[in-house]
Amino acid sequence: EMLSYAAVILPLGLINVIGSMQVIESASAAGDDFAPKETLLVNGIGTVMTSFLGSPFPTTLYIGHLGMKQIGARAGYSLMNGAFMALLCLTGSFGILAQYIPIEAGMAILIWVGFTIGAQAFQAVPHRHAPAVIAGLIPGIGAFTALIIKRVLGSVGYGTEAQPYSNEVFTLMTEKGNLFAQGVFALEQGWLYCSIIFTSLMVAIIDKRFTALMAWLAAAAAMAAAGIIHSFMIFDQDITTKLGPAWQWVFGYLVALALLAFVRFCLVKRSDLPQKAPGPAFNRSSDS
Fold first, then answer.
1. What is the DSSP string of the chain?
2. Residue 67 domain-assigned?
3. pTM
4. What share of the chain in percent tops pLDDT 90?
5. CA spacing 20 to 30 A to 210: which of 9, 55, 172, 189?
6. How far apart are CA 247 and CA 251, in angstroms?
7. Which range has the top average pLDDT, 154-158, 171-175, 193-197, 260-264?
8. Dist CA 216 CA 212 (whole Å)
9. Is residue 167 in some structural domain?
10. Which residues pair with 239 in a beta bridge?
11. What is the pLDDT of residue 278?
């Protein structure tokens, strides 16, 4: 039975690791270096411990290091946060809070964190890589759009309670009108990996690094073939990842790879390529 949920379990685990690595990198950009091995080890131990207590969700590093740092939060913030959440769980007080305190009241800190890490994404990289940051936002926007589509369908009563996204509804969304829902759902699957790929592709384009560009296209094709990105299916009450090839995307990435290989080896002179690799991402002196 667990294998039937592999399309959910495996991507969630990978996203947890990658998300934690991004938090470590964000903290480094803010001037605080943490050892990745020890940090991820403690994070993994926390996930195993919570699984024995019945939690299906992996723990992850706290996002928004820069935002928390700017408001003066330190290690004590996490300790108090954990103690408070434990108290609410053990006393069953979450229901009372949800009844009297609107969820919007707790969103202010998340909005602040979003502003700070969004700004950091542009500030911590060379100016020439700003288009790459924007490219990395596209899959996230696609995933958010897919979420809104699903919420709207649920609110207007499409489908049944057991399967709100029937094949008929899916066909209506993807083949009629100008919603382009098929592309939205494709971006939603493995959107974090897509974001990394799109950003890396754009950086390689900007820096004219053809070898890196072709390597990322090959990686994207392989991930699409494995079903890690872009492949989706209607599963129970959701449209979710399908561990199977997304052939349209595989073909698209491979065609782009072939065209770039032709340009690189047949049309571009060696003297036109960068003579040295660009500096580190956080070295602002390399801006151009």
1. -GGGGHHHHHHHHHHHHHHHHHHHHHHHHTT----HHHHHHHHHHHHHHHHHTT--SPP-PPS-HHHHHHTT--HHHHHHHHHHHHHHHHHT-HHHHHHHS-GGGGHHHHHHHHHHHHHHHHHTS-GGGHHHHHHHHHHHHHHHHHHHHHHHHHHHT-S-SS-SS-HHHHHHHHHSTT--HHHHHHHHTTHHHHHHHHHHHHHHHHTT-HHHHHHHHHHHHHHHHHTSSS-EEEETTEEEE-SS--HHHHHHHHHHHHHHHHIIIIIS-GGGS-SS----TT-GGG--
2. no
3. 0.75
4. 19
5. 189
6. 6
7. 193-197
8. 6
9. yes
10. 234
11. 55
Query: Structural domain of residue 222, as residue ranges?
Result: 127-288
Kindly report the backbone phi and psi dihedral angles of residue 229, in degrees, each rounded to the nearest multiple of 5, phi listed first. -130, 150
Cβ neighbours around 250 below 10 Å, total: 19
Contacts for 209 with CB less than 8 Å, ≥ 6 apart: 203, 274, 277
Is residue 225 within 8 Å of 240, Cβ to Cβ?
Answer: no
* Burial class of residue 104, CB neighbours in 10 A (0-12, 13-18, 19+): exposed
Count of domains in the chain?
A: 1
In a domain, 79, yes or no: no
pLDDT at 64 over 80: no
Note the pLDDT tens digit of each residue in 10-55. Answer: 777 777 888 888 888 888 888 888 888 888 898 888 888 888 888 8
- In tens, the pLDDT along 123-166 reads 888 899 999 999 999 999 998 988 888 777 777 766 555 565 66
Give tens-digit pLDDT for 82-120: 898 889 888 888 888 878 888 777 777 778 778 888 888
Mean pLDDT score, 53-76: 80
Answer whether residue 43 is part of any domain.
no
